[in-house]
C-alpha cells in the first residue's frame, strides 16, 4: 500500500514538473517572472484562468486585490519588488481603471518593509 502511494506521489511530481515547465516555457518574460516561483502547475493554471478568462468584474477585482495585498520584504532584492509592483499597477491600468502617478508612488512607499519605517 505504501509503495503504491509513493509511486503515485512520484508520478504526480513528474507530471507537475512537466506541465509547470510547459506553462512557464510558453510565457513571455513579464508573465514568467510573476509565475516562476509557483511550485504547482495547477496553481499557475488557476491563477491564469482567474486573471484572464473570468468576467470583467472578476478580473478587475482580482488585479486590485493583488495590488492592495502586495507587500515588500527584506529577503528579496528591492528592484525585483519594484518591478513586481509596477506590473501590478500596469494590470490595474490595463483593466481600464485610472490611477494617478502620485497615488502609485504613495502606495509604493507604504509597501516598503516594516524595517524601513525609520526612512
What does the secondary structure layout of this molecule look like, with pairings?
Layout: H1 2-25, H2 29-35, H3 41-52, H4 56-69, H5 78-94, H6 101-110
Helix pairs in contact: 1-3, 4-5
Pfam families: Retrotran_gag_2
Structure description:
Pfam families: Retrotran_gag_2 (PF14223). This protein is an all-alpha fold. The protein folds into 2 domains: 1-53, no CATH class; 60-114, no CATH class. The protein contains 6 helices and no strands. Helix 1 (2-25) packs across helix 3 (41-52). The longest helix has 24 residues, at 2-25. The protein is globular. The model has no long low-confidence stretch (mean pLDDT 89).
**How many structural units, i.e. domains?**
2
Q: Report the radius of gyration as a whole number of Å.
A: 18 Å
Whole-Å distance between the termini? 58 Å
Instruction: Determine the mean pLDDT.
Output: 89
Helix percentage: over 70%
H and E order: HHHHHH
Low-confidence stretches: none
Structure summary, number of beta strands: 0
Structural class based on helices, strands and sheet pairing: mainly alpha
Strand content: under 5%
Please work out how many helical segments DSSP would assign: 6
Overall, the morphology is: globular
Which sheet architecture does the biggest sheet show?
A: none
A few lines on this structure:
It holds the Pfam family Retrotran_gag_2. The protein is mainly α and 119 residues long.
Keyphrases for this structure?
6 helices, 2 domains, mainly alpha, about 120 residues
Amino acid at each position: 500500500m505504501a509503495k503504491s502511494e509513493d509511486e503515485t506521489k512520484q508520478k504526480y511530481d513528474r507530471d507537475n514538473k512537466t506541465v509547470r515547465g510547459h506553462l512557464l516555457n510558453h510565457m513571455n518574460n513579464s508573465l514568467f517572472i510573476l509565475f516562476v516561483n509557483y511550485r504547482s502547475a495547477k496553481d499557475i493554471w488557476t491563477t491564469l484562468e482567474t486573471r484572464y478568462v473570468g468576467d470583467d468584474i472578476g478580473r478587475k477585482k482580482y488585479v486590485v486585490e493583488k495590488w492592495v495585498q502586495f507587500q515588500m520584504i527584506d529577503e528579496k532584492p528591492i528592484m525585483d519588488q519594484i518591478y513586481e509592483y509596477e506590473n501590478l499597477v500596469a494590470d490595474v491600468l490595463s483593466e481600464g481603471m485610472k490611477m494617478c502617478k502620485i497615488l502609485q508612488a504613495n502606495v509604493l512607499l507604504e509597501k516598503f518593509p516594516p524595517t524601513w519605517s525609520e526612512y
